[in-house]
């Protein structure tokens, strides 16, 4: 009875079938190098595990501020950016006023809005997966107070028109630009706007650049905005290990992260070029560490790829995503394994 509200609720699901090559979760395929793990171990050993962590994550925030070229006061930290999305939907505007976002996109905007019982305005991207001003205008008419734009977008991989995101903010809507994949893009980001506007914030995450396991998301905003949002954050959401590991990796491991990102970007180019040679596959442009393809039969190709030992994300059942699969970039040998598998499978279709 007390939980009736959740009866028809669908929680966030990931693909879990064990496979030799996992290209389904947009992770960084590279592990941290051994020397960096050693350094982490040394620091983790010093943690007083019986004590609560610093609720303000002061030292970690200083390191992250330096990493992004902002001030610690511009930052709110979350247990992954998932938590920050939930926090924004909880605190921005009135809870009975809608949150708007384009579809298809990252499902957590919908999941969090549903958990919190907040109305949603889902508006479609156009056939190139771009924002349409007409659809944004229609959404704005319904008086939303909060908007999410994942740019580059998941699962489509493309970056949205900056002016249309700004246009939403100009229409008095608090606008969160989710830049989870910006490290793989050469397009302009929203940092300058976030630091100067009272209604634009940026979301970043350490998950895509090699630290998905420690759960560390970052919200960047003007100081006064960050300070208000931070009031509603659970006090010890950033664990002691996360604070310590984050500090070590983002200081001593910075060069390593940069190298890994460069390798992923160059592999993205190579793999997409290879796939473009296959007649039956449509490859969509990508600014992220994954890309989307359209195949003749999404369910079948997905299943056959699993039989070949490759797990990708089947998007076929989402609106506008018929027969689409999302493929994360792996290590070169994993990408070769995927390319061989996909060539074989496509021949069988
Ligand atoms: N935003 C987007 C667009 C994402 O794709 C993801 C992860 N799939 C997230 C946020 C959440 O990232 P985190 O691991 O920091 O919770």
UniProtKB/TrEMBL annotation:
The keyword Nuclease does not apply. GO terms for biological process: L-histidine biosynthetic process. Residues 254-281 form a coiled coil. Its cofactor is pyridoxal 5'-phosphate. Its EC number is 2.6.1.9. GO terms for molecular function: histidinol-phosphate transaminase activity; pyridoxal phosphate binding. InterPro entries: Aminotransferase_I/II_large, HisP_aminotrans, HistidinolP_aminotransfase, PyrdxlP-dep_Trfase, PyrdxlP-dep_Trfase_major, PyrdxlP-dep_Trfase_small. The modification N6-(pyridoxal phosphate)lysine is found at residue 208. Pathway: Amino-acid biosynthesis; L-histidine biosynthesis; L-histidine from 5-phospho-alpha-D-ribose 1-diphosphate: step 7/9. Keywords: Amino-acid biosynthesis, Aminotransferase, Coiled coil, Histidine biosynthesis, Pyridoxal phosphate, Transferase. It is an enzyme of class 2 (transferase). Pfam families: Aminotran_1_2. It catalyses: L-histidinol phosphate + 2-oxoglutarate = 3-(imidazol-4-yl)-2-oxopropyl phosphate + L-glutamate. CDD domains: AAT_like. Belongs to the class-II pyridoxal-phosphate-dependent aminotransferase family. Histidinol-phosphate aminotransferase subfamily. Homodimer. NCBIfam families: hisC. This is Histidinol-phosphate aminotransferase. It comes from Persephonella hydrogeniphila.
């Amino acid at each position: 009875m007390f939980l009736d509200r959740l009866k028809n609720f669908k929680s966030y699901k990931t693909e879990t079938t064990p496979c030799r090559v996992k290209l389904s979760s947009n992770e960084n395929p590279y592990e941290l190098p051994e020397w960096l793990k050693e350094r982490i171990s040394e620091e983790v050993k010093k943690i007083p595990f019986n004590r609560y962590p610093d609720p303000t994550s002061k030292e970690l925030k200083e390191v992250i501020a330096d990493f992004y070229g902002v001030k610690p006061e511009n930052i709110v930290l979350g247990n992954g950016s998932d938590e920050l999305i939930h926090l924004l939907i909880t605190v921005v505007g009135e809870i009975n006023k809608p949150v708007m976002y384009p579809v298809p996109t990252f499902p957590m905007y919908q999941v969090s809005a549903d958990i919190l019982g907040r109305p949603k305005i889902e508006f479609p991207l156009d056939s190139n997966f771009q924002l349409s001003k007409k659809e944004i205008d229609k959404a704005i008419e319904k008086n939303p107070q909060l908007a999410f734009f994942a740019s580059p977008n998941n699962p489509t991989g493309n970056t949205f028109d900056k002016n249309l995101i700004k246009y939403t903010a100009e229409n008095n809507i608090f606008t969160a630009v989710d830049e989870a994949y910006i490290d793989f893009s050469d397009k302009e980001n929203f940092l300058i706007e976030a630091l100067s506007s009272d209604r634009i914030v940026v979301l970043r995450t350490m998950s895509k650049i090699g630290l998905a396991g420690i759960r560390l998301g970052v919200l960047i905003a003007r100081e006064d905005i960050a300070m208000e949002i931070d009031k509603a954050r659970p006090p010890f959401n950033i664990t002691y290990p996360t604070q310590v590991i984050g500090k070590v990796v983002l200081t001593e491991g910075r060069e390593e992260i940069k190298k890994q990102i460069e390798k992923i970007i160059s592999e993205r180019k190579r793999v997409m070029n290879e796939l473009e040679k296959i007649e039956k596959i449509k490859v969509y442009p990508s600014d992220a560490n994954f890309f989307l393809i359209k195949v003749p039969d999404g369910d079948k190709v997905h299943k056959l790829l699993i039989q070949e030992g490759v797990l990708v994300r089947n998007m076929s059942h989402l609106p506008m995503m018929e027969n689409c699969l999302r493929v994360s970039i792996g290590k070169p040998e994993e990408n070769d394994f995927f390319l061989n598998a996909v060539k074989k499978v496509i021949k069988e279709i």
